[in-house]
Amino acid sequence: MPALRVAKRSTPLACLALLLAAVLPVISAGPLGPGDAAAAGLIAPAKYCSDNAANGGRAEMAKARRSMICMVNYARRRKGMRPYHRQPKLNWSSGRKARDILRCGFSHGACGRAFDYWIRRSGYLGGGGWATGENIAWGSGSLGSVRSIFVAWMKSKGHREAILDRSFTDVGVGVTRGRFSGIAGARIWVLHFGYN
Fold first, then answer.
1. Residue 133 and residue 32: Cα distance in Å, rounded?
2. I want to staple 110 with a disulfide (CB 3.0 to 4.6 A). Which of 40, 69, 99, 101 is the partner?
3. Rg of the chain on CA atoms, in Å
4. Which is nearest to 154 in space by CA: 97, 76, 102, 51?
5. What does the domain layout of the chain look like in residue ranges?
6. CATH number of 51-124+131-195
């Protein structure tokens, strides 16, 4: 159930938030269909990026985050783009956002906070021009794996555009696991994008 929201600021005094995509009704890990031509060739082969299920402790979750970045950067390279830089502050903010979603519900405004609340708290934003974006998703079982979540994002025009946005240079990945919407072992995924 991915969702995306982007905020851009061209000066320190102006901020614009845009809703770029709606929540998808179902996450599907199936093969790309005929309507998904734009995503064809952008999904990394299994041998290139591991399909980590994010089921374990800290080490397992760290591996899952690395796998997601591998998937994202594979798609960018296939489009002739520079890969994202892993940004520790965006890793921190996306992890906090994932925990908010787990606790308060699937929303860019989880726990009553603005979508960029944790990005701002991280200290990532500079004093000049900047932009931030967010993809969120959740799933359980095989639908919560790195590959399933990434395929769902790539099947969605808005989410794919955020992943392939040339203005963003940095990325952070957050993932957490727990009971969500009555389902045990659900994984909440958050991508935070930005430049500053």
1. 25
2. 101
3. 15
4. 76
5. 51-124+131-195
6. 3.40.33.10
